[in-house]
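Reviewers asked in the last cycle whether our approach scales beyond single polypeptides. To address this, we selected a multi-component target totalling 561 residues and predicted its structure end to end. The input consisted of the following lines:
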Amino acid sequence: MKGGFEIKQVQKLFWVNQTTCWLSLEGPIDAQPGQFVMIWLPGIGEKPFSIASMDPFCVLVVGVGTFSHALQKLSGGDPIWVKGPLGHGFSVDGQRLLLVGGGYGSAPLLPLAKAARAQNSQVLVCLGAQNSASILLSDAFENLGFQVSVTTDDGSRGQKGLVTSIVEQALQASDFDTLFACGPVGMLTTLAKICCEHQLDYQLSWEAHMRCGLGLCGSCEVPQTFDPSLPVGWLACYDGPVFRKRW
Amino acid sequence: MIGLSIPNINVNIGKIVLNNPLVLASGVMGTSPTLLERVALAGAGAVTAKSCGPEPRAGHPNPVMVEWEHGLINAIGLTNPGVEEEVHLLKEAQEKLSPLKIPLIASIFAGTVEAYGQVARAIVAAEPDMIEVNISCPNVQDDFGLPFAADWRSAADVTRSVKRAVGDIPITVKLAPNVPDIGRIAQAVVEAGANAITAINTMPGMLINADASRPVLFNCSGGISGPALKPIALHCVTEIAQAVEVPIIGTGGVLTGRDAIEMMMAGATAVGVGSALWYRGPDAFELIKAEMIAFLEQHNYRSVDEIIGKVHKA
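The resulting structure, written as structure tokens, was:
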């Protein structure tokens, strides 16, 4: 019954930067890379989170509002309630993979990178964020043995500019089988266009305002204006969050 | 060659022709023109838009929907953009659905008898094929009080108010299961001008999580749908079918072709499908349709019409 809540115990919180922490929960979760869960804190609310690690089960919590701040105040042994795994995730297609993460969009790419490692795929990771502190998980990707290229809006780390510019450079320099990405809508729309121009297969994880998480309320529709390849009436929680395009 | 032909599954709700009896239930996926188009392309015989009211409503905070052992429970809280915007959305939806020949059912709610008439009058501009009058949402009592579906007099008053406002557009009134005599309410709304009955809305219920010692839904109570609702729906449809002659859109817990067949045998002309989109995925309509056809073939029915109300004829 993946649409119902299951109680889980918090194992520990580990701060990544001033606003972001890893929240690890007891035990593993049986999920595909790119799937998500809904987390319920009774009396506070319920929000979707990407699965950032399957074993142990972890999510990345960026402190942006009441709910995430409440999560960040938890400590080992506290209960939380989890619905999921939900939706459809990434599949490791091909040998030469380009992973692109914008801000905290790098979270669902980490279990994908681990799966790619297990299949001996070649992986280049491109991460972009506003500033150096907002580049998340670059060391985790490097620890898997993958090269990581970084851009920041303010130039405080890596190349100054948008991550899509280093994606263009990477595509000029080498051939890839599939591009995988998660991040803000604008970044994904640009990447879909770039992939279209290069006829490159892609798997994009879309973010949208999720309410029911089960595909019925219609809140999280991603319009074709964001990516003309999306099917009509595509729902992030139900059909996605990952949309896969093969040419 | 009759024995080899595929059974006919067309049904008529009054003058409206459906290429199959399955109707997307209101409140499920029908929030945008593109989602309505998606469901039409996925095999629905007709689609019902999410209910709209006089003003925009954000709905309830999360959690708004959860699965439990025997069904789903939800309290979305009638999220809608308000009738003014809804008219534009329905016009756009109608442009997409007309070429597909899939009828569009608008759905309306309001807080007073007069406001029902006003919303209905506005919705006419979108030229829906039918208007569902939702008098039975279980999740908005704090704002609107007891549903109009709870009492035959107020149900009839709303029906008359809407009927006066909509001209030739047929209306179906969506009834609540938690009433002592649903047949009496059906009679009252039909006498007041309803062209069809949609039955049933979700059943009020509540989930409590013992570990959290709290209700699971933010709204505390919600509407039960899915498998748990089916026997209740079959009971209600049976009572309505014995009380009135108009077509019934039988809704509640239909997940399979057999469920749909049973609903029609209870007296439904068409069958609402909602929670099945969770239980059976995006292909729910095609799966249910194929299972219905297989059943009809196996039992040598030539047309699905033959099973409507069959339990009352046996």
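Residues 93 and 112 of chain A are 11 Å apart (CA to CA). We regard this as preliminary and will revisit it once experimental data from Aim 1 are available.
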